[in-house]
């Protein structure tokens, strides 16, 4: 409690200081009348190159900061995007704080390309996105665009399910300081301080944010302690826009990726087996206190966008990302010998030499480290006149990741050097890509679109992985990904579009650890209709996605909760997506959406009881056939708004063999949000109170899990029996967050 009081006191002190400084800036600005200021809107060329607009023949949804704000009380970006079409979100800790994930059209995070200001955010090796490393980043985002399907060419790995483009906060011409604080269930809290100097000397702006988020989590000991920062400096005049950004975060989360078996789920859905300690007889003896994931990630970005003349603009972007951290775990001897039958306690695994007593296993605690750097250069050139738009884009990147394991303690390890490393390897990935996009108005009604991209990748790994075993990769790829389409403007408010897009992408690190993977290929056909007029916006589209060698989720996870994938021959996704925004009354907005799909393996084979059998058409893992979202937003006045948001996710299989043991039941949840704003005549510019009640009707549901099989040839000698197992990640029942923000 004292710590929270100190934090609030420090926050108020900072507000006072900033308000004084910003007041000075306001006085400086007031010396020049507002109408004479050059209020320039110089769009960022690199984002123009990768974002879609109404004439682009792809399926997309835009989300503004204003739409996110009523629910932005500490939960991660995937949870804030939960109500978008064809989206399914997950939370390891069960309440949206900590490790969270997002799937689109059944495709997991490794297939959702994410960029921040045009810079790839997906980890180069795993291809995943770890939002826990950027807590409260939604507070620094101005606009988000979700393109479903392959979409347009972007920077980084090709999108197989979607691409998510984030644009950080736009320039603010008025200075402000804002302190926000929220609290909620499971001892959750968020405190953040934001500021902007406004426009200084007509050209310069400095904005920033500091945030801290804490939560015990719904799941036992699934705690989160998250800190983040964001600073952006901007220079702009009539022809030039230069941005320098520093942002990052530090997360410490107690591990909660183990999940629960069906029996434990029914008896104690908040249980967490991570870090369990047993005595020699198998009696539980508490939990390891530091069974945590501890990671820091810092980003530097620099963007220069220049207007050459009325038609031509160019951009340059630089990025440097530095990530380092570990996950620490306790490896219990009794558990490994009687339950998991793992090797983590063996001397061989730890690369130790047996001592005189010939002991060859020991309880221990270890840290597994990742220390990586990612450097990126992007280039963009943009041409536009009344009929033609041309975008050229290029990227060069280099990733170096050091992976190593450190032995912290062992009960019987003899003489071992301090911080003994029991494995280490290095991954180096370089990439070069270029694209050209042409949008051509053919006449009053027709617009043609062509998009050609080339990507070249080189991936090298050398060293050992935990086991120990040699891990070596040397692979090169060259992909050509063409896209084309047409948009037909039926009238001023309605458009039809059709597009074809090809995508190819390389395997990730985990794929190589589990075998000899092949790159996957996708042909995506999209047909859609858009309407946009006063009072109503709507979009409907059908898609046909044909895959070759798709790296599908098997349902299984590895030792750190990462999904395991495997190549399949042919697979297919066909679907219909509909979304709308309808102003039913002056005070009532209705936003429904649904996605209906079929997702199939076309020639799937599976080894059951030692015999390889053709299962042919089976359902793709984690691909529900029906997803629906809905929002009613009632605003009786400009100062008050209340919203009811609902989400339905249909039944889905966690594996690819249509096993009843792999079923995740359908679920329906609703959230209630309310925002009240007060603008006093004196003092603060604005005071805003927010309330978010998640899972309003207290549904007991599971949004994610895992499924595995193995061949048992030990129980009955001479016979092979396929054993199936599953784990589940339960989500919190009804819980709340409420907060207040004061803006000066």
Structural write-up:
By secondary structure, this protein is mostly beta strands. The chain has one domain: Maltoporin, Chain A, CATH 2.40.170.20. The chain is built from eight helices and 39 strands. It has a 22-stranded antiparallel beta barrel. The longest helix has 29 residues, at 2-30. It starts with a helix and ends with a strand. Residues 1-40 have low confidence and may be disordered.
Would you identify the regions where 5 or more consecutive residues have pLDDT less than 50? 1-40
Number of strands: 39
How far apart, in Å, are the first and last alpha carbons? 27 Å
- Name given to the CATH homologous superfamily: TonB-dependent receptor, beta-barrel domain
In CATH, what is the class?
A: Mainly Beta
- CA radius of gyration is 26 Å
- Structural class based on helices, strands and sheet pairing: mainly beta
The percent range for helix content is under 10%
The CATH architecture can be named as: Beta Barrel
Brief synopsis:
This protein has 744 residues and is mainly β. Helix content is 9%, strand content 56%.
Task: Set out the fold topology.
Elements: H1 2-30, H2 45-50, E1 59-64, H3 65-68, H4 77-80, E2 87-91, E3 100-104, E4 112-116, E5 119-120, E6 141-148, E7 162-168, E8 176-184, E9 188-196, E10 204-215, E11 224-236, E12 240-254, H5 262-267, E13 276-278, E14 284-287, E15 292-307, E16 312-331, H6 333-340, H7 347-350, E17 364-384, E18 388-410, E19 420-441, E20 446-465, E21 469-470, E22 473-489, E23 494-505, H8 509-513, E24 520-533, E25 536-548, E26 551-557, E27 563-567, E28 570-583, E29 588-608, E30 611-619, E31 626-637, E32 640-649, E33 652-653, E34 663-664, E35 667-678, E36 686-694, E37 702-712, E38 721-730, E39 735-743
Parallel strand pairs: 4-7
Antiparallel strand pairs: 1-6, 2-3, 4-5, 6-7, 8-9, 8-39, 9-10, 10-11, 11-12, 12-15, 13-14, 15-16, 16-17, 17-18, 18-19, 19-20, 20-21, 20-22, 22-23, 23-24, 24-25, 25-28, 26-27, 28-29, 29-30, 29-31, 31-32, 32-35, 33-34, 35-36, 36-39, 37-38
């Amino acid at each position: 409690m004292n710590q929270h009081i100190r934090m609030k006191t420090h926050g108020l002190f900072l507000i006072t200081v900033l308000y004084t400084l910003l007041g000075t800036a306001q006085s400086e600005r007031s010396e020049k009348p507002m109408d004479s200021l050059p209020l320039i809107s110089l769009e960022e060329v690199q984002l123009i190159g990768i974002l879609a607009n109404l004439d682009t023949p792809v399926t997309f949804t835009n989300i503004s900061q204003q739409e996110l704000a009523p629910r932005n009380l500490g939960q991660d970006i995937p949870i804030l995007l939960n109500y978008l079409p064809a989206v399914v979100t997950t939370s390891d800790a069960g309440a949206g704080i900590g490790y969270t994930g997002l799937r689109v059209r059944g495709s997991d995070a490794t297939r959702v390309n994410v960029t921040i200001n045009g810079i790839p955010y997906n980890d180069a090796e795993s291809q995943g996105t770890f939002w826990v490393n950027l807590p409260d980043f939604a507070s620094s985002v101005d606009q988000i665009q979700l393109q479903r399907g392959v979409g347009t060419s972007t920077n980084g790995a090709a999108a197989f399910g979607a691409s998510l483009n984030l644009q950080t906060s736009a320039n603010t011409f008025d200075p402000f300081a804002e302190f926000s604080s929220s609290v909620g269930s499971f001892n959750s809290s968020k405190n953040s301080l934001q500021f902007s100097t406004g426009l200084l000397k007509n050209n310069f702006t400095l904005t920033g944010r500091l945030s801290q988020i804490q939560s015990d989590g719904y799941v036992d000991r699934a705690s989160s302690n998250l800190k983040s920062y964001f600073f952006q400096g901007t220079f702009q005049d009539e022809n030039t826009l230069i941005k320098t950004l520093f942002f990052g975060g530090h997360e410490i989360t107690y591990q909660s990726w183990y999940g629960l078996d069906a029996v434990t789920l029914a008896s104690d859905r908040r249980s967490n087996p991570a870090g369990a300690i047993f005595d020699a007889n198998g009696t539980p003896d508490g939990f390891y206190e530091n069974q945590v994931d501890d990671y820091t990630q810092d980003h530097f970005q620099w963007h220069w966008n220049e207007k050459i003349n009325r038609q031509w603009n160019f951009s340059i972007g630089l990025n440097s990302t530095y990530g380092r951290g570990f996950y620490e775990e306790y490896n219990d001897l009794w558990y490994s010998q009687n339950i998991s039958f793992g090797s983590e306690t063996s001397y061989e695994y730890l690369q130790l030499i047996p001592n005189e007593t010939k002991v060859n296993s020991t309880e221990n605690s270890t840290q597994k480290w990742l220390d990586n750097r990612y450097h990126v250069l992007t280039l963009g050139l943009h041409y536009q006149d009344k009929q033609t738009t041309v975008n050229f884009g290029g990227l060069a990147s280099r990733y170096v990741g050091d992976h190593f394991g450190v032995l912290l303690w062992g009960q019987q390890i003899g003489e071992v050097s301090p911080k003994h490393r029991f494995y280490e390897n290095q991954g180096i990935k370089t990439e070069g890509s270029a694209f050209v996009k042409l949008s051509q108005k053919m006449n009053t009604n027709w617009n043609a679109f062509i998009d050609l991209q080339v990507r070249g990748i080189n991936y090298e790994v050398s060293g050992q992985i935990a086991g120990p075993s040699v891990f070596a990769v040397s692979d090169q790829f060259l992909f050509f990904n063409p896209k084309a389409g047409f948009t037909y403007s039926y009238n001023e408010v309605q458009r039809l579009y059709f597009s074809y897009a090809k995508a190819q992408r390389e395997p990730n690190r985990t794929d190589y650890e589990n075998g000899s993977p092949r790159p996957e290929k996708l042909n995506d056909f999209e047909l859609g209709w858009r309407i946009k007029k006063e009072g109503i916006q709507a979009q409907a589209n059908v898609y046909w996605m044909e895959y070759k060698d798709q790296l599908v989720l098997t349902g299984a996870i590895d030792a750190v909760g990462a999904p395991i994938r495997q190549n399949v021959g042919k697979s297919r996704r066909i679907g219909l997506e509909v979304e709308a925004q309808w102003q039913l009354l002056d005070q009532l907005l209705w936003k429904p959406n649904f996605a209906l799909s079929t997702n199939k393996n076309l020639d799937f084979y599976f080894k059951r009881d030692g015999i390889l059998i053709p299962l042919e058409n089976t359902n793709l893992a984690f691909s529900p056939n029906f997803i629906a979202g809905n929002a009613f937003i009632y605003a009786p006045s400009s100062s008050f708004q209340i919203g009811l948001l609902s989400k339905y996710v249909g039944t889905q299989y966690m594996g690819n063999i249509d096993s009843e043991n792999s079923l995740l039941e359908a679920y329906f949840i609703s959230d209630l949000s309310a925002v009240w704003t007060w603008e006093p005549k004196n003092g603060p510019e604005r005071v805003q109170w927010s309330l978010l009640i998640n899972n309003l009707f207290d549904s007991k549901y599971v949004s994610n899990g895992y499924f595995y099989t193995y061949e048992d040839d030990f129980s009955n000698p001479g016979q092979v029996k396929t054993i199936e197992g599953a784990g589940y990640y339960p989500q919190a029942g009804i819980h709340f967050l409420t907060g207040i923000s004061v803006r000066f």
